[in-house]
Amino acid sequence: MNYSKNFIHNSFRLNGNSFTNFTEVLNYTAKISNDVFLFLEEWFSESNSVIIRTSGSTGKPKNIELQKEKMFNSAIATGNYFGLKAETTALLCLPINYVAGKMMLIRALTLGWSLDIVQSNANPLENVSKMYDFSAMVPLQVENSINYLDKIRKLIVGGGVVSNPLLIKLQNVSTYVFATYGMTETITHIAVKKLNNFSPLKTNFNKSNYYTTLPNVTIYIDERSCLVIKALKVSEKILFTNDVVRLISDTQFEWLGRFDNVINSGGVKLQPELIESKLVKVLEKPFFVAGISDELLGSKLILVVEDFITNTQELKIDIINNMKSLGVFTKYEIPKEIYFLPEFKYTESGKIQRNETLILIGF
């Protein structure tokens, strides 16, 4: 299937409605959602590209121009990888302002899905009564929807790291759940890893450490051990990321963290994401670690916890003692300071904005 302007698959349905041409689609969406209408108006225009705004979770939000043909190719790749053919029932519960939400629409238009749109909130399945073949969520939505996930047969999760406690919960649901790796520049995911429903033992989720690339994607690492992506079907440029990875094979990699988050403390390089993956065994509240300026070390490791608490000294001591007792933290991974905030700063998709949150403490 090749891209062509104004293409609408004859099996495409939106909220149960069918359409004979793109004008009918625009007329309908103008009545239900201004955001959906404005995006599809741009999609069906004569331009060969659309402008997408990034979420700003790893930097300042910015506008990126994406080629429509590349977005079309991405939709085809997702459909082929997950076996999602015409008449697939799908649920759109992500913000339409970002690429993940927009691509659910493009997949439906391109592949002939029956797509329903619900309000994008923290618990999108609470009032849903139908069963769906496919949907996409951010981790916060998955966490809040854990008791309703059986309404979705296949689910992809992006926009943030799936925590270990959530991963454990996912082993008890029938839904086939996959974490995705990608960014706006790659038009959502170029790699996927299965999170649950492993065979023969459902609890054997150590296999979920590795992402597997989709077809027509080539990967390697640069001198920083950061992932480099060549995926000409979805991007004309070779993409040099700031994601530190360990290559398992030509098609598999383990994500370790962000290069720009690395903390150089007294000459010891600390990867916050690795430390945080261990801290989930200690803390139930939202948290993150970061490096702040220090005269002696250059940068010192701190822990920031989202909790409204007045008597913090006793809790700080408990956290440090619990970390030491686990035996999985090096002495360099024990935070020098612990701070508590009643509320973090978050993006619209539920990701912690670390820099903005640190400003609240005074850094």
Do you know the CATH architecture of the largest domain? 3-Layer(aba) Sandwich
Helix content: 25-40%
What is the terminal separation in angstroms? 52 Å
Superfamily (CATH H level) name of the largest domain: ANL, N-terminal domain
* SS-based class: alpha/beta
Mean of all residue-level pLDDT scores: 91
Sequence of strands across the biggest β-sheet: 2-1-6-5-7-8-9-10-11-15-14-13-12
List low-pLDDT spans: none
Order of helices and strands: EEHHEEHEHEEHEHEEEEEEEEEHEEHEH
Strand portion, in percent?
25-35%
How many domains comprise the coordinates?
Answer: 2
| Top-tier CATH class of the largest domain | Alpha Beta
Count up the helices: 9
Principal-axes geometry comes out as globular
Largest sheet: 13 strands, mixed
Question: What does this protein structure show overall?
Answer:
The protein has 363 residues and is α/β, with parallel strands linked by helices. Helix 1 (22-32) runs antiparallel to helix 2 and helix 3 packs across helix 4 (99-111). The chain contains 9 helices and 20 strands. It has helices spanning 22-32, 34-43, 68-82, 99-111, 139-144, 164-170, 272-279, 313-326, 354-361; strands at residues 13-14, 17-18, 49-53, 63-67, 89-92, 114-117, 132-137, 152-157, 176-183, 188-194, 210-213, 218-221, 226-230, 239-247, 252-258, 263-265, 268-270, 287-294, 298-306, 337-341. It folds into 2 domains: 13-258, ANL, N-terminal domain (Rossmann fold, 3-Layer(aba) Sandwich); 262-361, 2-Layer Sandwich (GMP Synthetase, Chain A, domain 3), CATH 3.30.300.30. 25% of the residues lie in helices and 29% in strands.
